[in-house]
């Protein structure tokens, strides 16, 4: 998903009942107002190298909220999102190999959402917020037969969703999407909330769009994972300066519950994200998306070689990512929630 362009607040229920205020003094916690904090580390854009500017990851001494400091303003934030900040398949052999892997790995997401839809018994639209090129929705449509709609801030991404995967896509904010109330069987947000200055209105808009027993599916990086503890600023989930808030499981649960949802399931492993995230943390120069975004000079043969090495690294770290997930400390959190009755 491309950069958000709106400001706002996030209720931190369970911490202090405070509000995330993007205009607040950076020395004061935007959640609880506590002036005390500790700096965990300093970092810049390690992955896409959009800036040399250094940011801090700080933890509030009062409520333990983890946040980026200083947070980029809403006009500045888009500068840190490359134009092609999403995957679009090309025609070369390496791209076809990447596309096959993505289709295989995304089955993990598809299966999670399929079960949620079966359990709900609802029929209706599946709306994916931050749809990118629309591959996930294409797979959901194939497996469930339900109508789908993508939403993304990037007009280029929406075009790819239409042209490559025949997925209808809307460009803009969730709060602007032209849908009637209670029209969606499911709303999905994979790696969206951590990018937003204002997650709360997105959750409220999803609640308005969901059918009475519809499902909200949310995935975020897990700041309570082993990888973060071991790697610190080198953990891919930090993604300075695009990730503004770093959620632990309780943070996400409290936000959803404050917005009127109840959690039904929590999953700590993603085949698409956990092994790839650790591989990228260890060798960011091998990450296929980062190489594409940075336009790394490489011949087709070299690109294929680097992709194979990256895939081998993912396979090598797979056991560790599965172990940490089994201990409920995986590098991602995926939750299923429904409107509290």
Topology:
Layout: E1 37-43, E2 55-60, E3 66-69, H1 93-105, H2 107-120, E4 125-129, H3 135-144, E5 148-152, H4 155-165, E6 169-171, E7 184-190, H5 199-209, E8 210-221, H6 226-231, E9 245-246, H7 249-258, E10 261-267, H8 274-282, H9 288-293, H10 300-326, E11 332-339
Parallel strand pairs: 4-5, 4-7, 5-6, 7-8
Antiparallel strand pairs: 1-2, 2-3, 3-9, 8-11, 10-11
What's a quick, concise take on this entry?
The chain contains ten helices and eleven strands. With 341 residues, it is an alpha/beta fold. α2 packs across α3 (135-144) and α8 (274-282) packs across α10.
Total DSSP E strands: 11
Portion in strands: 15-25%
On the 0 to 100 scale, the average pLDDT is: 87
Largest sheet features? 7 strands, mixed
Number of helical runs? 10
CATH architecture of the domain at 93-235 and 244-277 and 320-339: 3-Layer(aba) Sandwich
Using the coordinates shown, work out and report the CATH topology of the domain at 93-235 and 244-277 and 320-339.
Rossmann fold
Specify the helix fraction band.
25-40%
Strand order of the largest sheet: 6-5-4-7-8-11-10
Question: Terminal Cα separation, in Å?
Answer: 31 Å
- Can you tell me the overall shape? globular
- Rounded Rg: 19 Å
Structural class: alpha/beta
What is the CATH first-level class name of the domain at 93-235 and 244-277 and 320-339?
Alpha Beta
The ordered H/E elements are EEEHHEHEHEEHEHEHEHHHE
- In CATH, what is the homologous superfamily of the domain at 93-235 and 244-277 and 320-339? Vaccinia Virus protein VP39
């Amino acid at each position: 998903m491309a950069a958000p362009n709106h400001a706002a607040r996030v209720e931190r229920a369970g911490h202090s009942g405070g509000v995330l205020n993007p205009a607040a003094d950076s020395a004061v916690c935007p959640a609880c107002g506590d002036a005390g904090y500790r700096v965990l580390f300093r970092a810049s854009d390690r992955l896409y190298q959009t800036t040399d500017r250094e940011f801090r990851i700080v933890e509030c001494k009062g409520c333990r909220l983890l946040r980026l400091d200083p947070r980029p303003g809403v006009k500045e934030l888009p500068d840190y999102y490359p134009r092609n900040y999403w995957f679009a398949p090309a025609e070369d052999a390496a791209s076809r190999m990447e596309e096959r892997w993505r289709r295989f790995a995304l089955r993990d997401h598809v299966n999670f959402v399929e079960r949620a839809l079966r359990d709900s018994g609802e029929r209706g639209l599946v709306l994916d917020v931050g749809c990118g090129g629309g591959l996930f929705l294409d797979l959901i449509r194939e497996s469930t037969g339900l109508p789908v709609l993508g939403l993304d801030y990037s007009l280029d991404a929406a075009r790819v969703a239409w042209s490559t995967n025949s997925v209808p896509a809307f460009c803009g904010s969730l709060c602007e999407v032209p849908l009637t109330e209670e029209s969606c069987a499911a709303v999905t947000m994979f790696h969206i909330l951590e990018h937003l200055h204002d997650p709360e209105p997105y959750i409220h808009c999803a609640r308005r769009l969901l059918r009475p027993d519809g499902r909200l599916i949310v995935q975020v990086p897990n700041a309570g994972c082993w990888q973060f503890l071991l790697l610190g600023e080198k953990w891919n989930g930090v993604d300075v300066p695009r990730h503004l808030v770093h959620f632990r499981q309780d943070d996400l649960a409290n936000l959803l519950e404050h917005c009127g949802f109840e959690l039904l399931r929590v999953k700590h492993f993603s085949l698409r994200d956990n092994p790839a995230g650790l591989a990228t943390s260890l060798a960011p120069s091998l990450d296929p998306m980062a190489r594409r975004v940075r336009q790394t000079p490489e011949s087709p043969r070299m690109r294929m070689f680097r992709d194979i090495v990256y895939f081998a690294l993912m396979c090598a770290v797979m056991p560790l990512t599965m172990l940490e997930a089994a201990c409920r400390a995986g590098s991602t959190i995926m939750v299923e929630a429904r409107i509290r009755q």
